[in-house]
Specification:
Number of strands: 11
Radius of gyration: 17 Å
Helix content: 25-40%
CATH architecture: 3-Layer(aba) Sandwich
Distance between the termini: 16 Å
CATH topology: Protocatechuate 4,5-dioxygenase, Chain B
Strand content: 15-25%
Order of helices and strands: EHHHEEEEHEEHEHEHHHHEE
Number of helices: 10
CATH superfamily: LigB-like
CATH class: Alpha Beta
Largest sheet: 8 strands, mixed
Number of domains: 1
Length: 281
């Protein structure tokens, strides 16, 4: 059957994509940030997931403000990256797993989540930067992906609790898949940052570290936060941390924390990395 082998979190800042494209990993500004991913890269090389579900927010490549689904899942055999205007070179297309995607969609809808199914879907930096962070050293993408887009752009947005519950339902869906398939979940985005307005540039390190602790040890504390609570502390774009809750819901209540790293500022953002597996594994 399908199995969730672990989950991780990462920023998906476009500036990180440019840093990788320009090979700045050893630059003093970037080195500590990129060093924080080494244990995660090693874990992925060891575990070799068949499929990665990338939980991210679309930045206008598929959905503009006139049509924004709350939850959208890719149901295609491939996903192309396209130019968004950030100056990041486009990557090779990603292989999808349409059979698993349709299984997940059906199961999630049966469990009460009204998914938008996308048989054509382009992936932007929200998906591509995390994949490059983990696999850019390889000659080709080593696994299939399933993009899962969460609305963190247009109000009203789903709550941290709704995202956590989606993750729980996602685990049920994966484990009911009849094929032996190893699945890793990437929760992307965040942490605290704001790109506009009077508070542009805000970073709340204390809040970021508090979120990381609670996501690992007490996710119910995170689900108690309203979106307003999160944005008051972490900035308007800090709401992206709700996507980490999808990943957390897909992992067992008790987890083994294999790696934790935090760095700020990186491109006016707090950047956190978590790697966890079920405590029973």
């Amino acid at each position: 059957m399908g199995k969730v082998i672990g989950g991780l979190t990462t920023s998906h800042i476009p500036a990180v994509g440019n840093a990788m494209a320009n090979k700045l990993e050893q630059d003093p500004y970037w080195k500590r940030f990129f060093d924080g991913y080494k244990p995660v890269i090693s874990w992925l090389e060891k575990e070799k997931p068949d499929v990665v579900i990338v939980v991210y927010n679309d930045h206008g490549l598929n959905f503009f403000l006139d049509t924004v689904p709350t939850f959208a899942i890719g149901c295609a055999d491939s996903y192309a990256n396209d130019d968004e205007g950030w100056g990041i070179p486009t990557t090779a297309s990603f292989k999808g797993d349409a059979q698993l995607s349709w299984h997940l969609s059906e199961s999630l809808i049966e469990q009460g989540f009204d998914m938008t199914m996308c048989q054509e879907m382009k992936v932007d930096h929200g998906c591509v930067v995390p994949m490059n962070l983990m696999f850019r050293h390889l000659p080709e993408w080593p696994c299939k992906i399933i993009p899962l887009a969460v609305n963190t752009v247009q109000h009203p947005m789903p709550s941290a609790k709704r995202c956590y519950d989606l993750g729980k339902a996602l685990r049920v869906a994966i484990e009911s898949y009849p094929e032996d398939t190893k699945v890793a979940i990437f929760g992307t985005g965040g942490m605290s940052h704001q790109l506009q307005g009077e508070r542009a540039g805000i970073i709340d390190v204390e809040f970021d570290l508090e979120c990381m602790h609670n996501i690992v040890n007490d996710p119910d504390k995170m689900t108690a936060l309203t979106n307003t609570n999160i944005m008051e502390r972490g900035g308007t774009e800090g709401i992206e941390v709700i996507m980490w809750m999808v990943m957390r819901g897909a992992i067992a209540p008790n987890v083994n924390l294999l790696h934790k790293h935090y760095h700020a500022p990186i491109s006016n953002t707090g950047a956190g990395v978590l790697l966890m597996t079920d405590a029973t594994d």
